[in-house]
Amino acid sequence: MKTIFEKPASIERKWYVIDAEGVSLGRVAVKAANILRGKNKPYYTPHQEIGDYVIIVNAEKAAVTGRKKTDKMYYRHSGYLGGLKAETYEKVLAKKPTMPMEKAVRGMLPKGPLGNKLYTNVKIYAGANHPHAAQQPVAVEV
């Protein structure tokens, strides 16, 4: 088999908008990660950045099932001894409404320089408004 190499100049980039209101957090993140990677294109290559741009609106209204609102924990560490911080989904949502969606999408992208670059192509907003109307994004159903 031959490895496909797509020239960066020949890649056509589109903008997509996903409305997360009432849709499962994970399902929105999977759809966004697949579009960011370019898995929806016939010339997908795992080691190249050929994906499109994604706008996620209403991120704070994404649904979580079961008791995840009170039981799901988000951890971070300060780097010091005993510096582990833990917060529930509800507290994180109250402080930073976009953070659960950001962490979900980020976790589904590859780790390393390629994943860092792909993550810059997603724009996440808590409300229904976004400043990317000039790019004429296409709505995606989840």
UniProtKB/TrEMBL annotation:
Entry-linked Pfam families: Ribosomal_L13
This entry carries the following GO cellular component terms, namely: cytosolic large ribosomal subunit
Q: Which UniProt keywords apply?
A: Ribonucleoprotein, Ribosomal protein
Look up keyword Nucleus and say if it applies: no
What processes does the entry annotate via GO biological process terms?
Answer: negative regulation of translation; translation
**Family annotation (CDD domains):** Ribosomal_L13 (cd00392)
A single Gene Ontology MF term assigned here is:
structural constituent of ribosome
Protein family per UniProt: Belongs to the universal ribosomal protein uL13 family.
Task of the protein: This protein is one of the early assembly proteins of the 50S ribosomal subunit, although it is not seen to bind rRNA by itself. It is important during the early stages of 50S assembly.
Task: Tell me the subunit arrangement.
Answer: Part of the 50S ribosomal subunit.
Protein name per its UniProtKB record:
Large ribosomal subunit protein uL13
Species this protein is from:
Spirochaeta isovalerica
What is the name of the gene encoding this protein? rplM
